[in-house]
Specification:
Layout (H helix, E strand, L loop, with lengths): L1 H12 L10 H19 L19 H9 L5 E2 L3 H4 L21 E6 L8 H15 L4 E6 L1 H9 L5 E4 L1 H8 L4 E9 L11 E6 L17 E3 L5 H13 L4 H6 L1 E3 L4 H10 L4 E5 L2 H7 L5 H4 E3 L21 E5 L4 H13 L7 E4 L5 H10 L12 H7 L1 H93 L4 H29 L7 E4 H15 L5 E5 L5 E4 L1 H18 L7 E10 L2 E8 L6 H5 L17 H11 L3 E6 L5 E8 L8 H4 L5 E4 L5 E2 L23 E4 L2 E4 L1
Helix pairs in contact: 1-2, 2-3, 8-14, 16-17, 18-19, 19-21
Keywords: ATP-binding, Kinase, Membrane, Nucleotide-binding, Phosphoprotein, Transferase, Transmembrane, Transmembrane helix, Two-component regulatory system
Protein name: histidine kinase
EC number: 2.7.13.3
Length: 727
């Protein structure tokens, strides 16, 4: 009976709880059962002389018996053989001045797996130094597996702990222990970079990245699934690369704590990839067992931390020496003094100040273990807590959608009734609307015919005047008996050209009425303006000087005929405006307004006009010429500018006269210097006597036909009222 109760107490207090302390209800139940066991075991035989319940018989006090009953028994292990065989020079042990009272033995719990790592000499050196300073009789060293170490920490049976960083982080989460120091190996400069994992494969394989481990033909060799650098850190990295823990575990072979066996498995081809703690490859290479450069290839080696061994995973802190938080401060101080004094780099490292465990907790989060173990399973409460804002927003949106749908259905019914009523009304007026549209169409056709007639009359006046002029000249020469075959041929050619121009005008107007516009082409505006000047001088009688400022190679994508027509209309208006002005002048200038825009202007020094007349210039059928004008010239120019993605503006040209400016897109030449293009163009002056002057002219000046003061072909000339007319 006694054995049964003792077994129950030990069972409930030693149940494995690897990553978290026992829940409060479970520990309370265990304590209650164990206490009941202690009470029953202390009962004497019926009628004995001792007290009724007999508590205190074992330890002398009832509370001592209860505590002894509920305290778990730690299962210690033998010192690892590698630690026992490690050679320590007694001369390296030295006294440290510490003053400590020992009411009992100081108990130090050590994670037994640390004795299977390459740092066994440093581990033995640390323990012997502690025993040397404090005395063997005052120190009890317990080698414990992970479960027993956690159990001893939770029951506070251990004064000090020595474990790997992940094991201590789990223990520290309970708040019972605090770190005193972290191991800093010779291969690192910071305690936070003391250890890592390394992925490697046989040299010559095509595998180069950790992400490729997910392939079906890839297998893994590793040490032990409970070590930080040997497995947990590499597993966290593989999960970050998108590999699942279950698939990785299924293709992994664990070789215990034999690094040499892992390397042999990779070199023999039994496994594709090997995983080891950092620095183990260098240790095997130093022992002459492998050649890293010739035999192995490391996957994704890192160089962004202070760890100087080959490694693939992020670096983590190494062993942590911790102390019971409520321990006598003098014991903590004494142990800290000993640890920080054992700086012997010949044994592999030294003890440094406690490291930051941020990287370890990041690993726990990725692996969903320790304080993040609850994240590995779905929980309704956690889901509601973590997504409360999203759920509230979703419910609000759903409510708004439902409300909108209801209100929309009501609105649809109302609008449907209104639509039906509107449709019935529409049917009643459909006949009237059809008749109205037919009437409007008839009016539009009538208007188009009238507008076309007006435009044709306006534009044909100029070529017909030129034809009359040349025909009259020929008639006078015939009457005078001055027959010159060359002059007659030239004049007939001009008459034919003007007739073709009149025909082109008629065709263009018909095309405009059908909205059939000819395509625009890249053209040199220097030639277009030159043709306009030629046509103007041959068809107009004016004493005005014509000043032309246009540079060669002024390229734009235009309809050359339309631009010429626009310039002719503006020059014709200018000539009409200055007919009674002393020293009349017309200026035609083409300059870049900016990198992408041309500004083509025609200016005169005609009489002053008031603001009201200026505002009415572009209104169709509005003219300042009285009965001699039709009011369509500027309207045609404005339409041409709009078809060229531009516009027409008018402003006063000083005190008297006006300046009309047409803007349209410019095509910069390849390699053009905009600063040079913005310079004022060279000037040419065409005088009323038919002569031309070019101020500061150079041999390179080029003048298109009609801009040289003569007709495009050698021919006789007639002078009428001082105006030159080629015939």
């Amino acid at each position: 009976m006694n054995g049964i109760f003792l077994f129950m107490g030990q069972f409930f207090m030693t149940t494995p709880n690897r990553h978290a302390s026992c829940p409060g209800s479970f520990r309370l139940l265990a304590a209650g059962l164990a206490a009941s066991a202690a009470i029953v075991l202390s009962l004497p035989a019926w009628g004995a002389a001792s007290s009724f319940i007999g508590m205190g018989a074992s330890t002398g006090t009832p509370s001592g018996d209860v505590k002894a009953a509920i305290t778990p028994v730690l299962r210690t292990m033998e010192m690892p053989e590698s630690v026992r065989d490690a050679q320590i020079n007694p001369l390296d042990l030295f006294s440290v001045p510490v003053t400590v009272d020992f009411p009992r033995k100081m108990r130090i719990g050590i994670q037994a797996s640390l004795g299977l790592t390459p740092q066994t000499r440093w581990l033995k050196y640390t323990l012997e130094e502690i025993q040397y300073v404090l005395g063997d009789d005052n120190v009890e060293i317990l080698w414990l597996d992970d479960h027993s170490l956690d159990l001893g920490a939770q029951s506070e049976q251990l004064d000090f702990l020595l474990s790997d960083a992940d094991q201590f982080a789990l223990t520290q989460a309970s708040g019972l222990y605090e770190p005193l120091a972290n191991f800093l190996p010779n291969a690192a400069s910071r305690a936070e970079d003391a250890q890592a994992g390394v992925f490697f494969t046989r040299r010559g394989r095509s595998l180069r990245n950790v992400s490729a481990i997910g392939g079906a033909d890839v297998s893994i060799a590793a040490l032990n699934s409970e070590t930080l650098a040997g497995w947990r850190a590499p597993l966290a990295l593989m999960q970050l690369q998108g590999l699942s823990a279950s698939s990785v575990q299924a293709k992994t072979t664990f070789y215990g704590f034999s690094a040499e066996a892992v390397v042999r498995g990779v070199l023999s081809g039994a496994q594709t990839v090997g995983v080891l703690p950092a620095c183990m490859l260098e240790q095997l290479a130093n022992e002459g067992k492998i050649s890293i450069e010739q035999d192995l290839a490391v996957l994704n080696p890192r160089t962004d931390d202070s760890l100087r061994c080959l490694h693939t995973t992020p670096a983590y802190p190494s062993w942590t020496f911790g102390a019971l938080a409520r321990m006598d401060p003098t014991w903590k101080k004494a142990m800290s003094t000993i640890l920080y004094s054992t700086s012997s780099l010949s044994y592999g490292g030294e003890w440094a100040l406690p490291a930051v465990n941020r990287a370890v907790y990041d690993m726990f989060y990725e692996l969903k273990m320790g304080p993040y173990e609850h994240l590995a399973t779905w929980s309704f409460n956690r889901f509601m807590r973590e997504n409360s804002e999203v759920l509230a927003l979703t419910l609000l949106v759903a409510f708004l959608i439902v409300s909108y749908a209801v209100s929309l259905s009501v609105l649809v019914r109302v609008k449907t009734r209104e639509l039906r009523r509107a449709l019935s009304e529409r049917d009643l007026i459909e006949a009237e609307a059809s008749q109205s549209r037919q009437h409007i169409a008839n009016l539009e056709r009538t208007g188009i015919v009238g507008q076309m007639s007006t435009i044709i009359a306006h534009e044909l006046k100029q070529p017909l005047a030129a034809i009359v002029n040349f025909a009259g000249s020929l008639s006078r020469r015939t009457k005078q008996g001055k027959f010159d075959e060359k002059a007659f041929t030239f004049a007939l050619g001009e008459i034919l050209a003007q007739a073709e121009r009149a025909n082109e005008i008629v065709n263009r107007v018909r095309a405009y009425a059908k909205h059939d516009y000819p395509p625009r082409k890249v053209t040199d505006l220097y030639e277009v303006v030159g043709n306009a000047i030629t046509t103007f001088r041959r068809s107009r009688q004016t004493k005005a000087e014509v000043i032309v400022r246009v540079n060669p190679h002024s390229m734009a994508e235009v309809d050359a005929w339309e631009i010429e027509l626009a310039v002719l209309n503006l020059m014709k208006n200018a000539a009409d405006a200055i007919s009674g002005v002393e020293a009349p002048k017309i200026e035609v200038m083409l300059v870049p307004q900016d990198e992408k825009t041309w500004a083509l202007s025609v200016a005169d020094n005609g009489p002053y006009i008031d603001d009201e007349q200026l505002a009415a210039l572009f209104k169709p059928l509005q003219t300042t010429k009285g009965s001699a004008g039709m009011g369509l010239g500027l309207s045609i120019v404005s339409s041409i500018a709009e078809r060229h993605a531009g516009h027409v503006t008018v402003e006063r040209n000083g005190i008297t006269g006006l300046r009309f400016t047409i803007t349209f897109p410019r095509m910069p030449e390849e390699g053009e210097n905009l600063a040079d293009a913005m310079l004022p163009p060279k000037m040419q002056i065409f005088h009323s006597d038919g002569t031309r002057t070019v101020p500061s002219a150079t041999p390179e000046d080029q003048t298109p036909p009609g801009m040289d003061g003569r007709a495009p072909h050698p021919s006789p000339t007639l002078r009428t009222n001082g105006q030159v007319h080629g015939i």
